Amino acid sequence: MAKRKGAGGGTIVLRRIEEGGHGHHGGAWKVAYADFVTAMMAFFLLMWLLNATTEEQRRGLADYFNPTHALSNGVSGTGQPFGGSTPHAAGRMASETGAIRVERGPRPILADLEEEDDSPTPAEPFARREGPRGEEETPPPRMAAPGGAELGRVLPGPEGESDAARLTDAALRAELARREEAALQEAAAALRDTLRDDPSLSAAAGQFLVEVTPEGLRIQLLEADGQPMFSTGNAAPSERARAAIRAVAQAALRLPNPVSVSGHTDSAPFRGGGRSNWDLAAERANAARRLLTEAGLPETRLAHVSGHADREPLLRDQPGAAANRRVAITLLRQAEAPR
User: Fold this and answer.
1) What was the pLDDT predicted at 43?
2) Which of 73, 107, 159, 297 qualifies as a FRET site for 141, CA 20 to 30 Å off?
3) How far is 112 from 189, CA to CA, in rounded Å?
4) Within this chain, do residues 147 and 265 fall inside the same structural domain, yes or no?
5) Residue 121 belongs to some domain of the structure
6) Pick the residue with more confidence: 315 or 141?
7) Which parts of the chain span the membrane according to its record (predicted)?
């Protein structure tokens, strides 16, 4: 502070405030900066490790920091990093506990082929041999084929079936086809006898066509001039059609084969409000289906019901013939037709 006298004799006091340096702000910023640098270094180290390690090494690292649950039955990588076993390794690990193992076993024998006679036969002697686990193995089952030939089952090996197994399967299929053919022929003969002996059907015996085809046993109900199976232009069955379909249903119940029903018309155009031969054929097939089920045929036996209009005429050279108006009921084959 300085004092001096002014012009009027008064004393003037001048005060000068000298400011010192700024105070100390502390070192918190240094800690934050150090944390940032450390984090960046750790980040770049992580990136380098990801690029320098293999997938298997990374999986081991992950398993080490994420061990298996303590209550599980296996081991984890805890305490054994890098070189230790992990749940992903082969062997008895926790991640594989309860896994399903599929093993190929012997092929089953078709149960449809049975011995022709019920008399007991002595067991065939065979040489016992030990399996891979020490137990005794039984020989493959054998069956009698037509002509006395023996069908021996040969188990498939890891590289595929042997020629003997393929030949055996072919023989079994041939035997099934032969037996089904005999059953269809027998059912056809019995149905012809029924249609011939039934007084309500014998007069119209020429309107039934029963034949065994490669598709199966086919029974066709044909119309004739003056003797319709259905009312003209609609699907109302006549009494003759009802009696015939009941007979067909009884024949079908003796066999396990699935049943197909199809309706057919002639080439005459259908006259009536927007309907066509397609509608008429489908409606008559469906009417035949209802009569079959009413006669006791289970719904589960029906494979399909269809209408074909005039696309499959019975008499191709006479598309307008009455015989083309028909309903076909077919017991479909379950085995390949014999050649």
Assistant:
1) 93
2) 159
3) 23
4) no
5) no
6) 315
7) 31-50
Does one domain contain both 167 and 195? no
Q: Is residue 95 part of a domain?
A: no
Closest by Cα among 317, 312, 320, 297 to 225: 320
Domain identity same for 184 and 325: yes
Q: What's the rounded Cα separation, in Å, for the pair 106 and 109?
A: 9
DSSP string, 216-284: EEEEEEE-BTTB-SB-TTS--B-HHHHHHHHHHHHHHTTS---EEEEEE--SSPP-STT--HHHHHHHH
At which residue do the structure tokens 């992903």 appear?
88
Label residue 117 by pLDDT band (50, 70, 90).
very low
CA 194 to chain centre: 41
- Three-class secondary structure of residue 6 per DSSP: coil
Interatomic CA distance for residues 306 and 213, integer angstroms = 19
Whole-number pLDDT of residue 34: 92
Give the residue numbers spanning the domain of 149.
141-178
pLDDT higher than 90, residue 119? no
> CA–CA distance from 276 to each of 35, 272, 310, 329 (Å)?
88, 8, 10, 22
- Kindly state whether residues 272 and 291 are assigned to the same domain: yes
- Same-domain pairing of 240 and 155: no
Number of domains in the chain: 3
Same domain, 282 and 168: no
Residue 303 lies in a domain: yes
CA proximity to 241, closest of 326, 302, 324, 308: 326
Instruction: Answer for the pair 303, 332: CB distance below 8 angstroms, yes or no.
Output: yes
Q: How far apart are CA 231 and CA 325, in angstroms?
A: 11
CATH number for the domain harbouring residue 317: 3.30.1330.60
Residue 29: phi and psi, rounded to 5, are: -65, -30
Residues 148 and 235 in one domain: no
User: How do residues 253-309 score in pLDDT, each as one tens digit?
Assistant: 999 999 999 999 998 887 766 788 899 999 999 999 999 999 999 999 999 999 999
> Which amino acid is it at 201?
L
Asked if residue 52 is part of any domain, the answer here is yes
